Structure formats: C-alpha cells, structure tokens
Amino acid sequence: MIPDKHKDLFQKKAFAHLATVGADGSPQVTPVWVDFDGTHIRFNTAKGRVKDKNLRRNPRVALSIQDPDNPYRYMQVRGRVAEITEQGADAHIDALARKYINQDKYPFRQPGEVRVLYKILAEKVHTLG
C-alpha cells in the first residue's frame, strides 16, 4: 500500500507525526522515529506513555512524514496498529537510534522503562510530490 516512489522517506531521518485518539475522543499528535519493514510502518515508545495507552484502547492512527530535503513532498497514512509487542522492541529502538542520531544504543532510556514496538498497517495513503 505504501507507494514505491515514497518508500525512500523511511530511509531518511524524517520524523513522522503520529496521531492517536485520546480517551475523550480528542486527537493527540506526537513526532516519532519510524521505519518500514515492507509491510508495516513501525515505531517504538515506552509502555505507559499517552500514545501507548491510546493505541491499546483504540488502534486507529494517522501519520504524516515529510521529506526533509523537499518540504512539499510528503505522505499521509491512515490505518490501524496491527501488532503491539515488547518482543524485539529494544533492538528496534537501538536501530532507530542508529538511523536518527548515529548512536548504537538508544541513549534516552529511563530506569525500569519497557520498550514497545508498534506495527501499523496502512489502509489509506495520500502522497504529494
């Protein structure tokens, strides 16, 4: 579902803006690091954060990702979280740290923090550029 001409956005250090639905029905938007495994858009956060709670209650998401080299080129995705797992989440956040900040280990981990990996299945995609 992700168009070939926009898959390169996942290779760049482009932040995605992830929208989830809060308990009161209001949107909550967070910039996140992302990658793409060929089927799912993946991101990672700590268990218990607002987006984690929102997604466990309601798996619907929207996100946008903008080309850092051309702000008029972007992709908007609407879909749902198909999987939430702790398995592989530590390795995934370290891979994202290598991509985004050139560090082998994610340096912002808090004591006792449990990382969670989310896999988004795109259902509707809009692109520009």
**CATH architectural name:** Roll
By DSSP (H or I, 4+ residues per run), the number of helices equals 2
Indicate the structural class.
Answer: alpha+beta
Query: What is the strand arrangement across the widest sheet?
Result: 2-1-5-6-7-4-3
Low-confidence stretches: none
- The helix/strand order is EEEEHEEHE
Taken as a percent bin, the fraction of beta residues is 35-45%
How many structural units, i.e. domains? 1
Helix content: 10-25%
The CATH homologous superfamily is termed Electron Transport, Fmn-binding Protein, Chain A
Q: Predict the CATH topology.
A: Pnp Oxidase, Chain A
Largest sheet, described in full?
7 strands, antiparallel
Count of individual beta strands: 7
Anisotropy-based shape: globular
Give the class-level CATH name: Mainly Beta
Q: Give average pLDDT, whole number.
A: 98
List the helices and strands and how they pair.
Layout: E1 16-21, E2 27-32, E3 35-36, E4 41-46, H1 50-57, E5 60-67, E6 70-85, H2 89-101, E7 115-128
Antiparallel strand pairs: 1-2, 1-5, 3-4, 4-7, 5-6, 6-7
Notes on the structure:
By secondary structure, the chain is an alpha+beta fold. It has a single domain, classed as Pnp Oxidase, Chain A, CATH 2.30.110.10. It has two helices and seven strands. The chain has helices at residues 50-57, 89-101, and strands at residues 16-21, 27-32, 35-36, 41-46, 60-67, 70-85, 115-128. It has a seven-stranded antiparallel β-sheet with strand order 2-1-5-6-7-4-3. The radius of gyration is 14 Å and the shape is globular. The model has no long low-confidence stretch (mean pLDDT 98).
